[in-house]
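Before the break, one more example. Copy the sequence into your notebook; we will annotate it together after we see the structure.
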Amino acid sequence: MALFMLQLASGEKAVVDADAAGRTAAGEIVFERTDQFGPAVRLRTYRAEEVSAVFRQAPMDGGGYGWLPQPATGLWWCY
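Here is what the structure looks like once it is written out:
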């Protein structure tokens, strides 16, 4: 599991616990849960215009955890 934080266009923030996140060709931000026994299950989809930025919680250089920004354009997946 990983934590993802979204900066929403409304100014609010949302934190999502998911196995994977991605940006589709249409710009949508999707979150999925996966396991070794079956296909990925989509937890949530945000329309492109709803999201200003996406961050993934990850270990930082020098120790501790922080929020790493994900690309604002193009296709991507992170786990």
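The CA atoms of residues 24 and 75 lie 6 Å apart. The first strand starts at residue 2 and ends at 8. Try to locate both features in your own notes.
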